[in-house]
Amino acid sequence: MSNPLSALRLALVSLWSSKPASGRVRQVSIKEDTCECHELERKLRAAMDLVRLQQQILDDQETLLGEHRRAFAAALDFLAAVRNGTVL
């Protein structure tokens, strides 16, 4: 047979374990949550704007690097032609 006090002990342990947690429960305010959501949305939009701006800068830099590569290749071709004596 089971001990009749074990159920009481189990209930007391369960109650004791839940007591600290009950102090951490806070009332939820819809206004606060809405405000927090709007603030989070504002931050996410700002982050996305920053990512878009960085992507535009990266695209511009890649275009500029491509132009510099072509100019550098043309300069090397010109120097090779001067060295070979084909351009005076």
Number of β-strand runs = 0
* Average pLDDT level: 80
SS content category: mainly alpha
Distance between the ends? 112 Å
Shape: elongated
Please indicate the percent range of residues in DSSP E strands (runs of 2 or more). under 5%
Q: How much helix, percentage-wise, in residues?
A: over 70%
Counting DSSP H or I runs of 4 or more residues, the number of helices is 2
Q: Could you name the ranges where pLDDT drops below 50 across 5 or more consecutive residues?
A: none
Helix/strand order: HH
The value of Rg in angstroms is 36 Å
How would you describe this structure in keywords?
88 residues, mainly alpha, 2 helices, 0% strand
